[in-house]
Design a protein that fits this description.
The complex is a heterodimer. Chain A is α+β, with helices and mostly antiparallel strands. Chain A has 12 helices and 22 strands. Chain A starts with a helix and ends with a helix. Helices cover 42% and strands 15% of the residues of chain B. In chain B, strands 1-2 form a two-stranded antiparallel ribbon. A two-stranded parallel sheet of chain B has the order 3-4. In chain B, helix 1 crosses helix 3 (75-88). Classes of the chains: A alpha+beta, B alpha+beta.
């Protein structure tokens, strides 16, 4: 994989970073060595793409070699300023970083913490058992998480334990803001999490690596009137929702969300065709289906590529997951489409029960009928202990699809 | 917009570390980063970044040459690389070093977002 990435981005050198506790005076070392494959020469258009480049962030594709998103200094620094205008990180803040730093969300949080906060506390991995105690013991004022991490709290603690942890945090902690993003939060988790961290503010963000992240903010004051929204566009970000022909949609009409700002990527290194397909006249195609209300609040309706076509009916996995999570015994749900010779696709769901609950499929289907049309109900239901995750801690719908197909065999 | 876009991030971080050194009452030795079993002050981060910058400059790399940073899941590994960026672009002797950086985890293929 390393060789392939070296070749893709034409990198002549690799740097390894290590922390070495054996040497207290100089407690780390770095290793710089040439790549093991001779990197290809950059084409003229790639050289142009790398002008002013600060970072090439390797983004996950569900299959194949990751894409190299080229971000300019000006774009990334500009986005940091825009985020700071929303979060107002202050010199007395202490930041807890549990995000992976090769993930753009973790990247900007690290930068912002170093630039504006008193200090940054780093954690090697997210541990649901230790999250509340870390916030308390280290007197953290600001942290950032992905929804999967918070769902794991509900799976790890009973509701009573969560209430107690939350109570202790509100009494003795200093948490003022929790930023959440990277994937859909969901109605129930959003409401629960706001209770768990109260009186701290929950700030829900939406964005892509390709746009330097944080294109939309749902601020706490807007949550009561727009609880399922991703919020309003961030400073400096324009958006429009377009139909399949690229024409602007009417209010409340669902279409693809496209974004324009000074913070967009320069392109994908080594993939001109993909760059051209993603960036059209300065508008970035997000691949997310969305609608906007009269107040300018945007609502995600699913990924255009994730739409399940069941017997000709289009179903978004997210709406099925939201309904499943409203059922009493369900802590978390992940839904995908699986190929079916008769229906085109069928709906498959993986469910995680709440602690102390067991899921009875018949009872669940009955309860689900209160929240969701019958044709959107899962055809296949599996019960598990955790949702499949990628390396960045986000849920991996592609992996679930593979697992479901394997199980079908 | 920033007047020196090719050095914007480096300058921002370098300035941030200097500010961190200034605002700590006991000078530049107070930690700005805490890991599991270690800590790092702004001064030590800057010192390390100078060392890294010297290594890169010695290779006479052209501007905008991509360099791969192998970022493990451990956050502190990358924290050092942030510091590596901090000084490099802010000093003329380091300007021949590349500014583009490719981030990838230590292993595996499901990378960043």
């Amino acid at each position: 994989m390393l060789d392939a990435v070296c070749q893709k981005v034409a990198a002549p050198y690799v740097i390894d970073w290590r922390f070495d506790q054996r040497d207290a005076e100089e407690p780390m070392y770095d290793r710089l060595y040439p790549t093991s494959v001779k990197p290809r020469s950059l084409h003229a258009n790639e050289k142009a793409l790398l002008e002013d480049a600060a970072l090439i962030v390797m983004t996950s594709g569900s299959t194949g070699l990751p894409k190299g998103v080229v971000l300019r200094h000006e774009a990334f620094a500009g986005k940091l300023a825009a985020i700071q205008s929303m979060l107002r990180v202050a010199s007395e803040d202490r930041v807890l970083l549990v995000l992976n730093n090769s993930f753009s969300f973790g990247l900007w949080m690290s930068f912002l913490g170093l630039m504006h906060a008193r200090d940054v506390v780093l954690s090697e991995r997210f541990d649901p058992a230790a999250f509340f105690s870390s916030l308390l013991d280290k007197q953290i004022t600001l942290s950032a998480v992905v929804p999967t991490m918070m769902r794991s709290l509900a799976a790890h603690f009973s509701p009573e334990q969560l209430l107690e942890q939350s109570h202790q945090l509100s009494l003795k902690g200093k948490l003022a803001q929790l930023v959440i993003g990277g994937e859909s939060l969901g109605t129930q988790l959003s409401a629960d999490l706001r209770q768990w961290i109260a009186p701290a503010r929950l700030i829900d963000i939406y964005g892509l690596t390709e746009s330097c992240t944080c294109d939309f903010f749902l601020m706490p004051e807007d949550y009561p009137a727009h609880p399922d929204s991703i919020g309003q566009a961030a400073p400096g970000v324009c958006f429009r929702i377009v139909d399949e022909q690229g024409l602007p949609c009417l209010p409340l009409q669902v279409g693809e969300l496209t974004i324009k700002s000074a913070f967009l990527m320069s392109g994908y290194l080594g993939d001109e065709a993909l760059s051209a397909a993603s960036l059209n006249d300065g508008w970035l195609r997000t691949g997310d289906l969305a609608q906007v209300d009269e107040d300018g609040f945007v609502y995600l309706k699913g990924r255009s590529k994730e739409l399940i076509s069941r017997g000709g009916n289009k179903v978004t996995p997210q709406e099925v997951e939201l309904a499943l999570c409203r059922c009493e015994a369900v802590a978390a749900a992940l839904v995908t489409g699986i190929d079916d010779p008769l229906m085109g696709e069928r709906i498959a769901a993986l469910l995680i029960p709440k602690p102390g609950f067991s899921i009875d499929e018949k009872a669940l289907r009955l309860e689900l009928g209160r929240f969701l049309e019958r044709y959107k109900h899962p055809d296949v239901i599996r019960i598990g202990h955790e949702l499949p995750q990628g390396r960045t801690g986000k849920i991996d719908r592609g992996l679930l699809r593979k697992q479901m197909i394997e199980n079908q065999k | 917009m920033l007047s020196h876009p090719e050095r914007a991030l480096a300058r921002l971080l370098d300035e941030a570390l200097i500010c961190a050194m200034d605002r700590t009452a006991e000078g530049d030795e107070l930690p700005v980063l805490w890991g599991e079993g270690w800590q790092a002050s702004a001064r030590s981060l800057r010192a390390q970044s100078h060392r890294i910058a010297r290594s890169l400059t010695a290779l006479a790399l052209q501007a905008n040459t991509p360099i791969i940073l192998r970022v493990s899941i451990r956050a502190e590994d990358f924290a050092w690389s942030l510091a590596g960026k901090a000084c490099r672009g802010s000093r003329s002797s380091h300007e021949s070093a590349s500014s583009a950086r490719c981030c990838m985890p230590e292993s595996g293929c499901a990378l960043c977002d």
